[in-house]
Amino acid sequence: MQIDITTNDDLFTLETKLTGAGTIEIGKPITVRLSRKLRPDFFGESRVAALLATLSQRYALTVCDWHNEWKENEIEEHFRTSLVGITAALYSNRLTNVPGMEFPNSRDVLLERVAVAGGILEPKTSGARGTSITFCAFDPDWSEPAAFAGTLYRKELFKKTFGKYRAKYLEVGKGITHTSATRKADDRLGDFIFELYQNSYEHGRLGVDNKPVNGMRYVRLRKHIDRKDRFLERAKGFEELTSYLMEVVPEGEEFKFYEVAISDHGLGMIGRFLQTRPDMTRKTESSDERSALLNELLTQPLTSKRDYPGAGYGLQRALRAISSLQGFISLRTDQEWLCGHSAQRDASLVTTGLRKVQWQSEPVSIAGTHFNILLPVRIN
Amino acid sequence: MLAGSYETKIGDRGLRVLLVDLQEHLSPRKLAEQLYSESRNELTVADILVIRPAVDQPIADTQELARNMEPVFERVSKLPVHFLTSHDFQHRLSANVHPGVNELLSEQERIALIPALRQAELADIAKRSKAMLRADGPNIFRAPSKTYCQRFLRAGNVQMHRGTLDVFFFWMLPWLKDCHVIVADTWTISSIVLNTTRLLARYEPKQGRCKVDMLAEYQDGSMEADTTADAVLERVVHGSQGVALAVFSACMTGNAVSRLKATTERHTLEGLTFRFGALYSLEPNLPVESLCELFKEAPENAFQHFDELPKAVGDVRIIDIDKTTYFPSVILESEVAVDKNAAIHAEECFKDYGQSGAFFVHRNSYVAGQKYRHHAIYPDLSVFLKQDCFKSRLQEKLAQLDRPPTLVVTPPHEPGREMAAFASEFLATQHGHSIRFWEHLDLVFPRDASAEEKELCQTLQSLDEASAILVLDDVSVTGGRLVRYQKSLRDIGFRGQIHYLVGLARPERMSAWTRRTRDLRYRDGQALKHTLNHVEFLLLPDWNEDRCPWCKEQALYGRLVLELGELPILFARRNAELAPTNADRGAFQNLFVSHPPDFKFRLTENSLFAPPDCSEAAVFAAVASAIQRLRTDDDPRRNLAQQNYPQATCICPHDYLGNTFTDPILRAAILRAARRAEVERVKGEDEAHRSALAKSILLADKSDEHSVSIELLIAIATRKVPLPTFSGSEMKILEERGVAEFLELVTLLVK
What is the reported pTM? Predict the structure, then answer.
């Protein structure tokens, strides 16, 4: 079977293609033809990466780079520095181009090169600042990006480090006048990224036997500066996101968003919960039951560290930070896709959690947990 | 967040209090998160949490504050929470405001706790700020009073940061009612008194202006000092009414106070009353009240001053204290060798376990599935427990228990579980019936306790005075967890005997363990005291992330990536090895970076520290233990501890850069285990000598010699060793060896 991922695919088309792959028998070969140029939709690249990870866990995956000719430097650059490129290289059994040439480098060499770059993808280091930066960990061998070395359990150090990268690679100049983010907002941004990053480490890298599985985890920060109409174009088909943008983005002027993606390709939140808390009986047969459990996990201290007082508030904290930043959040895990926003900065995100994304179909199971967050930067 | 964990006593009752400041910029939620992430260890052993809101506001009613504390109650789910506030210049400690936890203290106890907290907090500040200068051995201070002493308190050191200034304001409040003048005895505490007047204006704006001034020098009764004091007082009391407060940094004999009192009499105006107070008193029964009786925290007569030299003149070296800055006039530096005397206390332990693979470094411990803390040195009791010698010693200890335990309690983690299972099985064989073991973090039972917890609680409550339980802990650093168990057991009304048994006691100081033993054995009114035993004992530094040498190495890689955008592959791989996924499962084995990479660090025969073929971690632990022994040495000439300022002791450079030890692994281990202040020299020529020694290692011909090149560069990057300079031809040698690339990176970091 062949799946084409093209320049025109939005999030829902990608979901449909993933659903379509479900008809194939597990273990059979599948080829994904992957366009290098993807739609600039919010959350798009992250979803393609998740799709590739999911397919690789079920089928013998070949990824075909939709390119006729590979030039030596360009190919290295593409697969080593882009999120979708590195995911394709990591998860595919074979990586080819249209004429069928095999990718000349080994996966290990490629990962080593990313590790040498501190686990960082994408940043532009000279001239104008870039628009995105991704920090990757590859389990089991490169499990902590050197850029974040030693920060996993040190929140303030992590936030400081993250802030420095943001300032260095994504912003021109320093201070509020340049970044439009107040110190307080910057602090809250760091807060929830840390919580979700730590969560992905503690849960997203472990398999059914509670041991690390081969896979990738990442934190990605992308900057969007545009006008309202262009933003709405990027959210096409995503009703909840559209209505959020309508509320938040002013007419007729340039606006700035940060898009944050924190993803892993592990068991997923529901799978992990069922594994770690067999003592807590929760039904997960229906979509409503699964959504309810996810919201319970997001809003209640249902920790896997059951004997440790005060544990289990990490996700709540993250939601609270997103809420106070007037953000939009999408959570895709297992067979669920939830979203919510706090355009009015009310507390509903924290108290009631997220709602199911309105879509004509039901999402199929996806590998891992994917938090995608959109935050207006002009906030205080 | 400012937080301090203090052990206090109210009557006979010991109490561990975690005191935190809810500073103006912190929300309760932020405070809760910081408590959870930064004071997790302290929270698990504390009895109560005391929150002190911003000190510049009087608070009549804490109910409003309590309503906002829900985030704190969530994260601190088992501890009573109190507010330490003030109103009308009087301190107050609220009743417990945590709705989910029962009150622990009576009203009388709360009142008594306030001065106890003041004493503990201010003594702690003096200790942490190294305000207590010590002259040991042949050295003695000549204080500004021209008397001689072995210890001198330089109170000005306590001004470490804004937080401590606010703390002093808070505790001085009862002195400040109607206060319109403050005169400090020295400029060295000027920040404290200036901050006090600033906060006073916010605390009680109606009180009006409070003038402030400082005396220029010690009140030694000389004409100059008297004249200066006159001038200051005349200026400051002009037109003032109410209270004029004279604050002394520290009071030893009361002479300076008496002299200033006499001087103030010449400046008394109608409606103006002088009041005298000292931040610290160094002797009992002085004619001035003080905030902290520091003499209680030191050995008897520690601060004693002598009018004459207590020793024959030829035997002593006098260190003058400057009478205006209160700084010692010289720094005395001496070298200490990491020798057999330092290593001998741990010899047996490393002989028995050094080759077993029981030691690890740079590893996190987990309790109840939660990361508990980081350990620079991590002895794994699961491995100890596999050794025959440990098993037989443990059995011996269990067999010696004078009363067999009814049940066993252990913390909820793997090594504790294994040790408890072993002990239960052995005891069952001994006594012919099964003995159940329970895992519990702290024996604090919340109102919504699980059925299993309730059963444990009821069982413990049902045991009579003639019964006993066994509390097992795999490794104990401070004994804090055992104290927590002890207090919890007392709180639930447990009446029996407690046997505490620790697999490995690893305190930083012998004296600390002795004190802990005494406290834990105490049992009120019973013939059979509680018992505290350990199977093995080892002095080791207790270092978390802030001091772990490998965390510091990780930070170097982080900095390099940020500044250069990439790492050499050697460092990238090294960083991966240092990641918690690797280190926390005990897979980080190559502690030292060898160069060339295939060079193997190993200990040869007849080492002072450990047998040959020990793991690198065991060698490091043995060296770190020896250095830790030096930090606590009774002989001041061999004591590496920093509180001996101005007597600086440092490790002899030949131990790690010279030829004292020929095994490269020992050089590498000392470089990692020593702190910067323990190797850095005061004099420029001594630093130049160290730099030359480092250079000779980097350029040495033999691979054995330069195998520590990268380790040495890491030491340079962490500023333990000064950066040498190299000529063009020398750089060529380094280039050929592949070291020049790393030297350039280190140069970038250091410069």
Answer: 0.87
